[in-house]
Amino acid sequence: MGGDPSLLRKINQAAVLRALRAAGRGCSLTDLAATTGLSRPTVEGVLEGLARTGLVAEAEGAAAEGARRGRPARRYRFRAEAGRLLGVEVGSRRVTAVLADLAGRRQGEATRAVETEAPAAERLERLAHTARTLLGDLGVTVSALRAVGVGTPGIIGQDGSVALCAALPGWTGLPLGERLRELFRVPVLVENDANAAVLGERWVGAAAGADDVVMVLAGLSPGAGSLIGGRLHRGHGGAAGEIGALHLLGRQATPERLLSTAGTPVDPLDERAVTRVLAAARAGDPRAEDAVARFVERLTHDVAALVLALDPELVVVGGWAAGLERVVEPLHRELERYCLRAPRVVASALGGGAVATGAVRLALDHLEAELFTVTETG
Amino acid sequence: MGGDPSLLRKINQAAVLRALRAAGRGCSLTDLAATTGLSRPTVEGVLEGLARTGLVAEAEGAAAEGARRGRPARRYRFRAEAGRLLGVEVGSRRVTAVLADLAGRRQGEATRAVETEAPAAERLERLAHTARTLLGDLGVTVSALRAVGVGTPGIIGQDGSVALCAALPGWTGLPLGERLRELFRVPVLVENDANAAVLGERWVGAAAGADDVVMVLAGLSPGAGSLIGGRLHRGHGGAAGEIGALHLLGRQATPERLLSTAGTPVDPLDERAVTRVLAAARAGDPRAEDAVARFVERLTHDVAALVLALDPELVVVGGWAAGLERVVEPLHRELERYCLRAPRVVASALGGGAVATGAVRLALDHLEAELFTVTETG
């Protein structure tokens, strides 16, 4: 690396940016030189370059407490407002977009309904419209975006295309990452929805601080996202956690039937229908109580399979079942009975926002890798 | 590290040993200096030290092809016979010991039956006797042992004690590693039996070259060992793959009942009883055929749970079910139907020897870490 001045510049830039981000409120030249181990002239040169890109500015209220005499020392800060990150969930019944600044701080959110049977083009158009409306409402132009994270059902290939998805029409084979790159003109990171959700819960939700986590997204076809040693476990072909098919083997009832109260199937993704059943169960309707009990039993079986296979420290229950007040406690009790080592069980802290929040985290991870890490090949 | 001559010596030793092991048949001083980048006097000093420990000797048939004139160059080799490794399986119905040299080459094996209900002390005594007999028959003293690997059912703690084991009486809470260290006076590595088995299959069996593997040990309570990215996945508390409890949740029949042909339960660990049922099924006895079909269905469900959770590239079926000629093909067919991405399914190549072979691999891994790697703290 001795012979490559541009690599050296990148390394210095990354060091200064990291120090500014860690400091939060602003750093003097002296602080930055001390933290990074670089000379003051080098730090000054790096700051000038970063100021030109817009990523660094002088901190306001620059009268630093440390400067006791003469002119107060200039202080610098990371400009989290220099760009934006978009986190997107493309689901069966709705699309959601969350806008955040370059520090990952949430600035706004929009959700629109979409028909379960909507073809892929219509679903993508709904997403584009939702994102554009959100940006417009917040006075942000598309050119401000630095990265887009996406969570969607199915098995996602390494190139961001949907390798397989039974839930959304026309989704299998769709080059989703490519389409969204054409739309937003920035890097797009696509991930399975349950995988995105567990990243979101670990970032700012119920799995903060946990390294071995299984998150179950209860729904029409339950899926799970797993962290092993703090890292997403995608599996050999990206299909890890796709436990929706498990009940087919046991010839058990489908969730529609599990939730039905009078022979009429209830779509577990239809929140109003599910809410009706839950309300009836709470009111003491014995058929609704039975339906909820059957659903919990099925969910317990799916979660137990994951827990026995992976042995996590924590299970997070998400999707609409997170709102099922009676699911966490019985689930834990059942796992205690059947698992050799039962993990903690908690409800999602992010609820319906877990997938989109995880999608923001994907975009932020990409940005941080780009800004704060330098490799020999970078 | 500049100031620690003993660390430098270890690094040089490790480099020379690694080069000798890789070369296999013998290396000249010139070869070793070239491979390791060390000076000839340094290599000579290291070789003298290693010869004193017995780990290196002059290769026989020292007339090297490379030496065209004068006295042939001396050649050196790693002395795999300088010590022994022991791999042990302590199971429900038998104990097995395998002896290997320091290159992991198998030199002999002994197996003894033990009662399923035998208390822990009797099981340990049977193991000690089996190992001593094997060593005696091969003319090897206990002092030649360098490490012992052990595979046994249950959840194994990091200190080599049995945290939980439902299958063997008195096994839960047993400080198994400590007991065997007292017996053999060398490092003892204890691992769950299915975990040991998947290491064995990857080393010299059906999983060679595969990095994402699930190995199922079919038996009274099926267990699984998993490799993720080539490394054992033990889980947060060492309980990963303990899927034996899964069927309890689905209220399915126990394996004894699954295999019964006339209302009499058949113990799946009783090889003779199982063999009778399999033979009857092959002969066309419809009740036996039904029993085998029920067992395969149950096994499919357990394996599917693991496959859906982990998404491996390969499933290895071991335990006695590996001999079940009709298990691999239907299992793969069922997985194709229900899993989004079905892995390859193969029968164990090591059969009943998988666990003990994996235990040898554990001992070899320990030896190699000791001999061939040097860390700053080492």
Automatic annotation (TrEMBL), chains A, B:
Q: Which domain of life is it from?
A: Bacteria
Family, per entry: Belongs to the ROK (NagC/XylR) family.
Gene source species: Streptomyces zhaozhouensis
Where the record annotates domain HTH iclR-type, the positions are 15-57
Molecular function terms, GO-annotated: DNA binding; kinase activity
GO biological process terms on file: regulation of DNA-templated transcription
Upper classification of the organism: Bacteria, Bacillati, Actinomycetota, Actinomycetes, Kitasatosporales
Which Pfam families is this protein grouped with?
HTH_IclR (PF09339), ROK (PF00480)
Q: What is this protein called?
A: Sugar kinase of the NBD/HSP70 family, may contain an N-terminal HTH domain
- Which InterPro entries does the record match to this protein? ATPase_NBD (IPR043129), ROK (IPR000600), Tscrpt_reg_IclR_N (IPR005471), WH-like_DNA-bd_sf (IPR036388), WH_DNA-bd_sf (IPR036390)
Keywords tagged on the record: Kinase, Transferase
